[in-house]
Design a protein that fits this description.
Blueprint lengths: L2 H17 L12 E5 L1 H11 L1 H21 L5 E6 L2 E2 L4 E2 L9 E9 L4 H67 L5 H36 L5 E5 L16 H11 L1 H23 L4 E8 L8 E7 L9 H44 L5 H17 L5 H36 L10
Helix pairs in contact: 1-4, 1-9, 2-4, 3-4, 4-5, 4-7, 4-10, 6-8, 7-8, 8-10, 9-10
């Protein structure tokens, strides 16, 4: 058997390994792999996420403000006794004939509905906290779902790299051995080597992105830092052709009614208007009613009296706070209009992007991937038979890798665009969570 025949057999064995290669796992360096469906991840997120728990505490804190606003002012009590009576030569004399002491009790009564206005302000604050919580939930849930799909599809892309790297590593070892026996040229070895190093660098960059998404995803669901999440995407999780069944007007109406950041802005207007009413009410004087008893300090023994005190709004009529409250009303209205414009802009951008990606995805032949896999198999066979050269073979295989990665990226971007539409409309129009 000639050296060329021996070399050809070695190369053939390598490509047979390539054809039947089992998908290699990444080096997780002691990490515990955890497989999760999207439904399981969302359940864990809702139960454990610290930001959501903090948001719930903020709501409870705001509710405590309602209790405070409902409370009446405490009555004011005072008591005064003579320190030293020079007539009786007694300290703290409380005797009937010579003692002197007096006592009073007073109660402040707020006027102009100040208490009710404070209660309404506290209620609006609770609404704002609740709206902010649900807007936080909307944002974090979008991040969770986006990371889930990003990890899944980039892992699929990483498998393509790992398969090719594994195969080229074996091929390089065989080629180096064959080069020693002068069965192949140096340029073939260098070409394989160059391709291998390029793939390893691209995989390392891709894995960095996966690790970043893994880190963010694990923080959202509070998974252990040493776990490695394996997203379980079932075959029926594709959202289907839902985009063609909704109109832009429907999406805009949904965003207008369901975006919690808009509700926060609207609540800001309500709060400013109510605060303005409160500041006008603060210009109205409150009434302090009091009862007094004096044992021996008045011209009438055992004097008792009733008193009323009202500040005269001569100089301070709360003018500054009223003016500031008026400005706050105008400012909150501008903030609401700005938020409305932002919602419309976000929706238009997301809708157009989703339409483009949906059209592009529909343009892909469902059998393209299988046909390309069959083609690569034939390319391998022809290279083994030396019907094509090394460069041509590598070009075919690089084209296979590129198209597979593009398809994975397209699927990920398509799902992410639909998730973006869910995010900007504040609904779950396109969500199809795995069971």
């Amino acid at each position: 058997m000639s050296k060329n025949q021996i070399g050809l057999r070695h190369i053939t064995a390598v490509f047979l390994l390539l054809a039947v290669a089992v998908t290699a796992k990444g080096q997780n360096l002691g990490r515990t792999e955890v497989k999760l469906t999207l439904k399981q991840a969302e359940d864990q997120f809702l139960e454990k996420n610290l930001s959501l728990l903090a948001g719930k505490y903020a709501i409870e804190t705001a509710k405590a403000g309602i209790i405070t606003a409902k409370l009446f002012d405490n009555p004011q009590a005072s008591f005064e006794n003579i320190l030293y009576n020079p007539q009786t030569k007694r300290i703290l004399d409380m005797s009937y004939n010579g003692g002197e002491y007096n006592a009073s009790i007073g109660q402040l009564f707020k006027t102009a509905g100040k208490r009710n206005k404070n209660i309404q302000l506290a209620n609006i604050s609770v609404q704002q906290s609740e709206f902010q919580f649900f807007d936080l939930l909307r944002t974090l849930k979008y991040t969770l779902r986006s990371d889930f799909y990003k990890i899944y599809f980039q892992e699929q892309s990483a498998l393509v790299y790992k398969e090719e790297i594994s195969s080229l590593s074996k091929t390089l070892s065989v080629f180096q051995e064959e080069y020693k026996h002068d069965n192949i040229s140096k340029k073939e070895v260098l070409r394989i080597q160059s391709q291998l190093y390029s793939l390893q660098a691209e995989l390392s960059e891709l894995q960095d992105g996966i690790d970043d998404a893994q880190s963010e995803f694990k923080l959202l669901i509070r998974a252990n830092a040493n776990t490695y999440i394996l997203p379980d995407v079932s075959a029926d999780s594709d959202p289907g052709n839902y985009l063609s069944n909704v109109t832009y007007t429907t999406l805009l109406d949904s965003a207008t009614h369901n975006r919690y950041d808009l509700k926060v802005a609207q609540a800001g207007i309500d709060y400013s208007i109510m605060n303005l009413k409160l500041q006008h009410a603060m210009a109205v004087p409150d009434v302090n009613l009091s009862l007094t008893y004096d044992k021996n300090g008045s011209n009438v023994r055992n004097y008792s009296g009733i008193g009323i005190s009202i500040p005269i709004p001569l100089f301070n009529r709360n003018q500054g706070n009223i003016k500031a409250a008026k400005v706050a009303v105008d400012d909150s209205k501008l903030a609401f209009n700005q938020q409305q414009d932002q919602v419309q802009s976000d929706l238009d951008n997301s809708f157009q992007s989703a339409l483009r990606l949906e059209t592009l995805f529909k343009g892909f032949d469902p059998g393209f991937k299988k046909d390309f896999n069959d083609l690569i198999t034939q390319v391998m066979i022809n290279y083994q038979k030396r019907n094509i050269g090394l460069l041509e073979f590598l070009d075919f295989y690089d084209s296979y890798k590129t198209n597979t990665l593009q398809l994975n990226t397209l699927q990920m971007n398509r799902l992410n665009a639909l998730e973006q539409l869910n995010y900007v409309t504040g609904t779950a129009l396109f969500n199809k969570t795995d069971k």
